């Protein structure tokens, strides 16, 4: 799957309705004249292809009123993607809780639910429960199951996005190779009575990075997000597309050995996540008598200004910063965003200390180190966007228009 900035649709007489939709959605051409200019198609052909998009309910005339035409003459009506003709479902699974939502095609959250859900209960139980949540959320948002066009799921493990299978996940027992798409699609159909819809699965840090980059930093061509909660993972967005590596393993920095002797949830000793995650900080607090069992407990303590939690978060930031010096040197990102339970001042202070000390000045000269803007919703927004980009990509859009008979 490719993201918007890097995608080049067909031009000239080959440009179809899907390509015109892409030009409008990306903002590269939003009037009939601009579409003619961008594609070289005649006015009549552009008109015919736009008619298909209007009949499908995918395009509408913009509320902004006429703008000057690039071809001169009368001002032209602007066109825009009609994000209200369908909805998308998204869910973000963490190790012990999950969040799910109904979103518009343009990324607004229409109904949302968060609650306890443990990945260790296994895929069958977890995905059945998500199907139930989706049914309730659609009702709450006032939409029928038939209006949902697809489901996006974020999971806390490495994913082969071509197959939607999680691959040797360190902290998702029973999920390795499980048919997530099929099970979630069936659960959705059971709880809505609607026909099955496409399900897309990706790693949570990837989708958080995608959501944040698209909504807050659309011009950033090299974007890295690091999620520090129960575990630690990173998502990389290059030229508007998620960079997944050869088989979906890119960004899984939580299990790099940093030399300590702490036991990690993956079964190895000395992983970064075993010493510098929210879970690791919670264990250290608990060992010294402060009640904390999880990353979210640490988040609450940090929010309350607990001095020992702040000191441990800063030390965790230093350990993550040491690893990120290599990441930043390799990828030279413009934005390094920190998300998750530990994302706050103490952690960032520690991270900056080590990052700027270890990385070359050249690779950090224009680097912005920021905290998450979308917070707990980043994964949902990214999962929804992944589904929309997949379903409305030029060739897929063309195929769907034909199936709809328009
Ligand atoms: Zn590990």
Automatic annotation (TrEMBL):
<dbReference type="InterPro" id="IPR036388">
    <property type="entry name" value="WH-like_DNA-bd_sf"/>
</dbReference>
<keyword id="KW-0808">Transferase</keyword>
<dbReference type="GO" id="GO:0016301">
    <property type="term" value="F:kinase activity"/>
</dbReference>
<dbReference type="InterPro" id="IPR049874">
    <property type="entry name" value="ROK_cs"/>
</dbReference>
<dbReference type="InterPro" id="IPR000600">
    <property type="entry name" value="ROK"/>
</dbReference>
<dbReference type="InterPro" id="IPR036390">
    <property type="entry name" value="WH_DNA-bd_sf"/>
</dbReference>
<keyword id="KW-0418">Kinase</keyword>
<dbReference type="Pfam" id="PF00480">
    <property type="entry name" value="ROK"/>
</dbReference>
<comment type="similarity">
    <text>Belongs to the ROK (NagC/XylR) family.</text>
</comment>
<dbReference type="InterPro" id="IPR043129">
    <property type="entry name" value="ATPase_NBD"/>
</dbReference>
<protein>
    <submittedName>
        <fullName>Sugar kinase</fullName>
    </submittedName>
</protein>
């Amino acid at each position: 799957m490719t993201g918007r900035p890097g995608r080049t649709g067909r031009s000239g007489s080959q440009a179809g309705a899907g390509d015109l939709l892409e030009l409008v959605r990306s903002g590269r051409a939003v009037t009939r004249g601009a579409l003619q200019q961008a594609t070289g198609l005649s006015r009549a052909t552009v008109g015919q292809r736009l008619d298909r998009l209007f009949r499908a309910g995918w395009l509408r005339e913009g509320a902004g009123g006429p703008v000057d035409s690039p071809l001169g003459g009368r001002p032209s009506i602007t066109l825009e993607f009609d994000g209200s003709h369908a909805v998308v479902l998204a869910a973000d699974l963490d190790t012990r809780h999950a969040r799910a939502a109904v979103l518009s095609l343009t990324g607004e959250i229409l109904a949302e639910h968060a609650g306890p859900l443990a990945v260790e209960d296994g895929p069958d139980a977890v995905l059945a429960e998500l199907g139930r949540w989706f049914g309730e959320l659609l009702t709450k948002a006032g939409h029928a199951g038939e209006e949902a066009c697809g489901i996006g799921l974020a999971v806390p493990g490495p994913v082969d996005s071509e197959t939607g299978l999680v691959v040797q996940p360190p902290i998702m027992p029973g999920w390795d190779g499980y048919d997530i798409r099929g099970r979630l699609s069936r659960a959705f159909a059971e709880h809505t009575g609607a026909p099955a819809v496409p399900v897309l699965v990706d790693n949570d840090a990837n989708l958080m990075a995608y959501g944040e980059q698209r909504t807050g930093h659309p011009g950033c061509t090299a974007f890295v997000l690091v999620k520090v909660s129960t575990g630690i993972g990173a998502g990389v967005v290059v030229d508007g597309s998620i960079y997944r590596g050869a088989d979906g393993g890119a960004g899984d920095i939580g299990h790099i050995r940093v030399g300590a002797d702490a036991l990690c949830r993956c079964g190895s000793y000395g992983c970064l996540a075993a010493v510098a995650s929210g879970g690791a900080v919670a264990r250290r607090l608990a060992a010294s008598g402060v009640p904390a069992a999880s990353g979210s407990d640490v988040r609450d303590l940090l929010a309350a200004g607990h001095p020992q939690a702040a000191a441990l978060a800063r030390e965790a930031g230093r350990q993550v910063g040491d690893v990120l010096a290599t990441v930043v040197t390799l990828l030279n990102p413009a934005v390094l965003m920190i998300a998750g339970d530990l994302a706050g001042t103490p952690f960032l202070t520690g991270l900056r200390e080590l990052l700027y000390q270890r990385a070359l000045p050249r690779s950090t000269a224009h680097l912005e180190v920021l905290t998450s803007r979308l917070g707990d919703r980043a994964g949902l927004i990214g999962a929804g966007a992944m589904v929309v980009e997949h379903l409305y990509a030029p060739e897929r859009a063309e195929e769907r228009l034909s199936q709809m008979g328009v």
